[in-house]
Write a structure and sequence with these properties.
single chain; alpha/beta; seven-stranded parallel β-sheet; 17 helices; 31% helix
Length: 543
């Protein structure tokens, strides 16, 4: 028996059995958390072919850096809903393939922050004081003090490329050595960096000024080989370079050549383009310290990331959301509570639109008004949920916040967003307009501070509709008897009317009626309502 979340957010009991595959070594603390709720198989060291052959049986896959989650693996995982990376980097997971399939990919970026930070500081100190080389010399029976003359960190300029969690923690520790801290991160403002004691600057200027450079970015197209033969030429003579982030950020051959030439005084490398790095040009060079990807290798870090990814896995499988999703819109924690109600409303509005709009959908226009007009990039979550509501009811595969935009694009549906201060008198107003091959239909909704969410307009008609349950929406001639006859047909069919909304522009002309009913309405009953004199159209929808 498993506890899952219903669409309303309530916890209910289910007999659904979930199967989770752990294909890399994870700390037992996380695995025990999983075993309390789901079936867990631990199979490490699988080849791609072996993983492809077995993954179809699993709802979730948990990995570290060893397993390569390729497109073949993802396509074979017909039941996969979640891929968890026990650590920060996700470059061993085909994100495009996972996103297209609507599979949530999440990592555990905080669990190994301190471990990676401390290893970077250890590498920095070892690099400046030649500690590993001195130890090797001593173990060989030598006593050569002058050979291992070092330099102090005091008053050196440390350049940090990437000011995420690890970069910021390194800055705090380096400042205690009285180092000057400079940094580059396109997503951190100059003011925020200054508040952390970091002078923000361009990457080019950082390379020119730093005595020691440490990189802490993900490996993406923009960061691959950012340290290369050309950028090394712009650096100070005698610069020292550290990489405890991801292999591939540094061009290994260029760095090896620069150390041999003396342009770079030394390097400390924990990660490699190919691991294990049997043929890396960085091996065997006296001025380069190497460790076998130990950044996250502490007892505490492995426990933390294992627990984090296990908890996120259970959340997703039981209908919740992962804390560190990496292939979906990211909402700042301080905005989550305020954005979530609009995301729920957007999904219901999309679900209503697809059931009452005529024709093939070609375009979705999202308009954020009032206070919503200033939420910036956080609107992406709301838009994705609107697309989910719009497409999920009509497709044979699941649409979620992960793959929503990809699915819309594949179906030729363009999506646009507009943010404006205008809100028709509401503090916040969410408007969705769908353009089809036969016309368009626009609805608006709002989240009221005490009254929950409402749909406040359909096709320009004002109303106060609670977006729940089953509804009949009709357009009719505004004259006596039309509404009454529709109510009679429903009553004769034992269908109870729970609520009614009527809107019109001018008496005696076209009007709109929204009837909340207590259950599904058979097509025969709908046909009877459509056949009434004065009824122009009538559609049933379930929200």
């Amino acid at each position: 028996m498993t506890t899952i979340k219903s669409s309303s957010g309530d916890l209910v009991m289910s007999t659904v059995k979930f199967n989770v595959l752990v294909s890399d070594d994870l700390a037992e603390e996380g695995i025990e958390i999983l075993r309390e709720k789901v079936m867990v198989d631990v199979q490490t060291g699988l080849s791609e072919d072996e993983l492809v052959a077995t993954i179809e049986n699993y709802d979730a896959l948990l990995v570290r850096s060893g397993t390569q989650v390729t497109e073949r693996v993802i396509e074979a995982g017909k039941k996969l809903r979640f891929i968890g990376r026990a650590g920060a980097g996700v470059d061993n997971i085909d994100m495009k393939a996972a996103t297209k399939r609507g599979i949530i990919v999440a990592n555990a970026p905080e669990g190994n922050t301190l471990a990676a930070t401390e290893h970077t500081m250890a590498m920095m100190l070892s690099l400046c004081r030649n500690t590993p080389q001195a130890n090797a010399s001593m173990q060989a029976g030598e006593w050569k003090r002058s050979k291992f003359m070092g330099v102090e960190l005091n008053e050196k300029t440390l350049g940090i490329v990437g000011l995420g969690r690890i970069g910021r923690e390194i800055a705090k520790r380096a400042s205690s050595f009285d180092m000057k801290i400079i940094g580059y991160d396109p997503f951190i403002t100059t003011e925020k960096a200054a508040a952390m004691g970091i002078q923000s600057m361009s990457l080019e200027d950082l390379f020119k000024q730093a005595d020691i450079i440490t990189v802490h970015t993900p490996l993406i197209k923009e960061t691959r080989h950012i340290v290369n033969s050309q950028t090394i030429k712009t650096m100070k003579d005698g610069v020292r370079i550290i990489n405890c982030a991801r292999g591939g950020i540094i061009d290994e051959q260029a760095l090896a050549d620069a150390v041999k030439s003396g342009k770079v005084a030394g390097a400390a490398i924990d990660v490699f383009e190919s691991e294990p790095p049997k043929d890396s040009p960085l091996l065997g060079i006296p001025g380069i310290i190497t460790t076998p990807h130990l950044g996250a290798s502490t007892v505490e870090a492995q426990k933390n990331v294992s627990i984090s990814v296990a908890k996120q896995c259970l959340e997703v499988l039981t209908g919740g959301s992962a804390k560190y999703v990496v292939n979906a819109p990211i909402i700042p924690a301080d905005l989550h509570d305020s954005i979530q109600p609009f995301a729920i409303l957007a999904e219901k509005m999309g679900r209503l639109l697809v059931q009452i709009a005529d024709g093939r959908i070609q375009k979705l226009e999202m308009i954020y008004g009032g206070e919503l007009g200033s939420i910036g990039p956080s609107s992406k979550l709301i838009t994705h949920m609107a697309i989910k509501g719009l497409l999920d009811p009509i497709l044979r595969f699941p649409v979620n916040m992960v793959n929503a935009s990809v699915v819309a694009q594949d179906r030729g549906i363009s999506v646009s967003e507009t943010q404006t201060a205008e809100s028709a008198g509401y503090k916040n107003l969410l408007t969705m307009n769908v353009v089809t091959d036969t016309g368009n239909l626009c609805i608006s909704g709002s989240v009221l501070y005490q009254g929950g969410s409402r749909i406040v307009s359909i096709a320009g008609y004002t109303m106060d509709m609670i977006p729940e349950g089953a509804v009949i929406i009709s357009r009719h001639l505004d004259k006596p008897g039309v509404i009454g006859r529709a109510s009679t047909i429903l009553g004769e069919s034992q269908i109870n009317i729970a609520g009614m909304q009527v809107g019109r522009f001018k008496a005696g002309e076209e009007a709109i009626m929204v009837l909340n009913v207590d259950g599904d309405v058979p097509e025969g009953v709908m046909e009877a309502i459509r056949g009434m004199p004065g009824i122009y159209s009538a559609k049933f929808a379930r929200l």
